[in-house]
Design goal:
The protein is of the alpha/beta class and 288 residues long. The protein folds into 2 domains: 197 residues, Spore Coat Polysaccharide Biosynthesis Protein SpsA, Chain A (Alpha-Beta Complex); 33 residues. It is 29% helix and 19% strand. It has 9 helices and 13 strands. Strands 3-2-1-4-9-6-10 form a 7-stranded mixed beta sheet. It has a 4-stranded antiparallel beta sheet with strand order 5-13-12-11. Helix 3 packs across helix 4. The longest helix has 16 residues.
């Protein structure tokens, strides 16, 4: 099969409370991915601190989960009690995914991966690092996707890869965090980013995915890019221009060169029914 995009691509998705959201993501990328024979999908089922607030139904249930979790880690050879809270999702027909299940607690995981930090963000970061360790050696482009995003038109892959034709551009993202009270440098947000593996694989893996004191997880992708004389590209998006999005309950979007929404990020902004309706009919939410 002759693919228009020749580079070997690995997509890494960390599923930390996924459920119905990751179903929408996988269905949104299926059509494009199946057109290619050079794309791998790696899904890491991350523990994410054990459970989400919305999954808690009773105190005994919480206690049982915690007990089972620590038994699993204290006596891994004797028990198989891995906890997968709200992980259930269905891989669409014909879509091949490499799925790695782990219930490693953020504290255990970050120590195991030698990544400094704590809490959910560091657990997510460690999940990305774990997924990255599973990519094939011939991978040229790596795409990081949060499980609560959706790709909303059939040109999303070409939109992401086109800026990388510029030799100096090594990183492309849907949205960017600007300088604010928390961050003193702008950086590409890792909800959706693609990078050239040949550039980044030479840096320390721990540093690549970890958060920094002046940036969230993924910020070092941007800092290493700029500090080494390279460049990055970010699409027009609702973070920089809130008027692009009519419905403020959606989260955030990015638009391609044809002014069509190609990316949306739920980002805990709405309930699932609103999000699903948006993913199925996104264009009506774009300001004319």
């Amino acid at each position: 099969m002759n693919s228009p995009i020749k580079q070997k691509i690995s997509i890494i998705i960390v599923n930390y409370y996924g459920g119905k959201y990751i179903n929408l993501l996988l269905n949104s990328i299926k059509k494009v991915v199946l057109e290619y024979d050079n794309i791998d999908i790696i899904i890491v089922n991350n523990f994410r601190a054990g459970f989400s607030i919305r999954s808690i139904k009773s105190l005994p249930d919480v206690i049982l989960k915690v007990i089972k979790h620590y038994i699993n880690h204290l006596f891994p050879k004797l028990f198989d009690s891995r906890i997968k809270p709200n992980y259930i999702f269905k891989v669409p027909k014909d879509l091949r995914c490499m799925i790695y299940d782990t219930s490693i607690h953020p504290v255990f995981w970050t120590k195991w991966m030698n990544i400094k930090g704590k809490g959910v963000s560091m657990s997510h970061t460690a999940g990305q690092a774990y997924g990255y360790s599973k990519i094939s050696s011939d991978t040229e482009l790596v795409i990081l996707m949060d499980q609560d995003i959706a790709l909303l038109n059939d040109n999303w892959l070409k939109s992401l890869t086109n800026p990388l034709k510029n030799e100096k551009v090594v990183l492309v993202g849907a949205v960017e965090d600007k300088i604010n009270d928390y961050y003193d440098r702008p950086f590409v947000h890792d909800a959706l980013m693609i990078f050239k593996n040949d550039f980044y694989k030479n840096f320390n893996l721990d540093n690549l995915f970890m958060a920094t004191k002046n940036g969230d997880q993924g910020s070092l992708f941007t800092y290493l890019c700029k500090d080494n004389g390279m460049d990055y590209f970010v699409f027009k998006n609702s973070r920089e221009n809130p008027m692009l999005l009519k419905n403020k309950d959606i989260g955030e979007i990015a638009i391609d060169e044809d002014k069509k929404i190609f990316f949306a990020h739920h980002h805990h902004a709405s309930n699932f029914s609103i999000w699903e309706e948006f993913v199925n009919n996104p264009q009506k939410h774009l300001e004319k």
